[in-house]
Design a protein that fits this description.
The chain has two domains: 4-100, Rna Polymerase Sigma Factor, Chain: A (Orthogonal Bundle), CATH 1.10.1740; 103-190, Arc Repressor Mutant, subunit A, CATH 1.10.10. It contains eight helices and no strands. The protein has helices at residues 9-17, 21-43, 46-62, 72-100, 103-130, 134-145, 150-157, 161-190. Helix 7 packs across helix 8 (161-190). The longest helix is centred in the last third of the chain and has 30 residues, at 161-190. The protein is elongated, with a radius of gyration of 30 Å. The N and C termini lie far apart (62 Å).
Length: 191
């Protein structure tokens, strides 16, 4: 294999135009970091900077046969600068559009949707909890809805602490099976 790292930018560009993947890999290795830093300094966003540079290299490979430039590094810097300006322009348009929307509509829609999903989830959970055996349901609800300890629940229900632990553990096991893993995680965190 040829040592592509010893080739000049112009030699690599010529090989790239001929479809040489190793030449492209060397160009990528040689320029990615510097172009990324250049893009990041303008955008101040890691993901957007990385995307801009990645898109540049994708375009470079896709258009390799039709590219015409005299200086590879100038071409890459100009291309990344243009991509950065496109991102900045897009941000400005997006910001202008969002600023014209009534803020209450955007916020209200999000809150309303969140509340609706929360209510639906709470209803599903409540229905499943209601189907648990009475003592198990009572122990489970006291452990989740109040700040009572297992000892306090045991005293209130007139059962042992170990029974409370078993009821809560078995209730969680049953609900996990009935509700599925995703709802089970939500149940552990919120109910």
């Amino acid at each position: 294999m040829t040592a592509y790292s010893t080739y000049t930018d112009q030699e690599l560009a010529t090989l790239l135009k001929g479809g040489d993947g190793d030449a492209f890999a060397e160009i990528y290795e040689r320029f990615f970091s510097v172009l990324y830093v250049h893009a990041f300094n303008r955008l101040r966003d890691k993901d957007e900077a990385k995307d801009a540079v990645q898109e540049l290299f994708t375009s470079l490979w896709d258009k390799r046969e039709s590219l015409s430039f005299t200086n590879l590094s100038n071409y890459l810097y100009t291309s990344v600068r243009n991509r950065v300006m496109n991102v900045v322009s897009h941000r400005a348009v997006q910001s202008k559009y969002l600023s014209k929307l009534p803020k209450s509509i955007v916020i209200e829609e999000c809150v309303t949707d969140h509340r609706l999903r929360e209510r639906q989830l709470a209803d599903i959970i409540a229905k499943e909890v209601a189907t648990l055996p009475p003592k198990m349901r009572e122990a489970f609800e006291l452990s989740r809805k109040t700040s009572m300890t297992h000892k306090e629940i045991a005293e209130k229900l007139g059962i042992t602490e170990q029974s409370v632990r078993s009821h809560v553990k078995n209730a969680l096991k049953i609900l996990r099976i009935r509700l599925g893993l995703a709802l089970y995680i939500v149940l552990l965190l919120t109910y």
